[in-house]
Design a protein that fits this description.
Helices cover 34% and strands 15% of the residues. The protein is α/β, with parallel strands linked by helices. Helix 7 links the parallel strand 6 (155-159) and strand 7 (179-183). Keywords: Oxidoreductase.
Length: 328
């Protein structure tokens, strides 16, 4: 009896246990993993992907034409442990008939929770306040000391009312937000109805919002969307939060807006590049809170993401429907 030919699978990082276990139990696959929590060097990535039938990757791996050429004709499936796919050369992947799996929905709640946490942390100046306790700046109660901005009666503008944008609005509504605005490629009346959210132009959203939350995908249309003109249209008391992708924001323009008092504060979970260099000008500002891209960082969410990524990969290799396939 002829032995069954195993399909070669390459995993670009040490992934959470549930996904790892699913791959280990796949009798029809030979799995090789870059066994580290740190990003894989390019040379190792090229070596590992050569001849592979399936690739399980993260946002940090750029899957471009060169890497696809290195992989060769065997490559049938790419599964990314992310919602974002801007690290994948989708046109080239489509040309080669390669299927793509991704992990939408499962990180919506965790990311929305983080967005609300970041907004509250930024608008109530919590990092500054904690530092004042530590450095002796806390002396006595003062009427205006450490005052920030509250959500009650406010207008919140959401750029991109997708799954995560809706989940953020759902969580902010009980804080007493008076009005929700949103912008995007097109109106979404059905989704907006829950929050009585108004579809407006990007300039109107910037001008009328007390809080701006960016949750859109990174596309050619959204790259650099939040720039000098955008920040100049915002209120001086407004707070800006980005949990989408760093490239949606022109960071030089954001720095100028924050340093000059054009806007009150900013909270970022995403930057360009990632990690942000420790000498970056944004890190010198008290009114800018920056987190290390931890939107989906709960134990439960990351395990579910890894399992979905593994199941997408295995289904694709076996010619079955993927639980979450990106339609190219």
């Amino acid at each position: 009896m002829r032995p069954v030919r195993l399909m070669k699978v390459f995993v670009t990082r040490r992934i959470p246990p549930e996904g790892r276990a699913a791959l280990a139990q796949a009798a029809d696959c030979e799995v090789e993993q870059w066994d580290s929590d740190e990003p894989i060097p390019n040379k190792e990535l090229e070596r590992g992907v050569a001849g592979a039938h399936g690739l399980l990757c993260l946002l940090s791996e750029r899957v471009d034409r060169k890497l696809l050429d290195t992989a060769g004709a065997n490559l049938k499936v790419i599964s990314t442990m992310s919602v974002g796919v801007d690290h994948l050369a989708l046109d080239e992947i489509k040309k080669r008939g390669i299927r793509v799996g991704y992990t939408p929905d499962v990180l919506t709640d965790a990311t929305a929770e983080l967005a609300v946490s970041l907004l509250l942390t930024t608008c109530r100046r919590l990092p500054e306040a904690i530092e004042e306790v530590k450095n002796g700046g806390w002396t006595s109660w003062k009427p205006l000391w450490m005052c920030g901005y509250g959500l009650t009666g406010s207008t919140v503008g959401i750029i991109g009312l997708g799954r995560i944008g809706q989940a953020i609005a759902r969580r902010l509504k009980p804080f007493g937000v008076q009005r929700f605005l949103y912008t995007g490629r097109q109106p979404r009346p059905q989704e907006a109805a829950e929050f009585q959210a108004e579809f407006v132009s990007t300039p109107q959203l910037a001008a009328e919002s007390d809080f701006v939350v960016v949750t859109c995908s990174l596309t050619p249309a959204t790259k650099g969307l939040c720039n000098k003109d955008f920040f100049q249209q915002m209120k001086k008391t407004a707070v800006f939060v980005n949990i989408s992708r760093g490239d949606v924001v022109n960071q030089d323009d954001l720095y100028q807006a924050l340093a000059s008092g054009q806007i009150a504060a900013a909270g970022l979970d995403v930057t360009t590049p990632e990690p942000l260099p420790t000498n970056h000008p944004l890190l010198t500002l008290k009114n800018c809170v920056i987190l290390p891209h931890i939107g989906s960082a709960t134990h439960g969410t990351r395990n579910i993401m890894s399992l979905l990524a593994a199941n997408n990969l295995l289904a694709g290799l076996r010619g079955e429907p993927m639980p979450s396939e990106l339609k190219l």
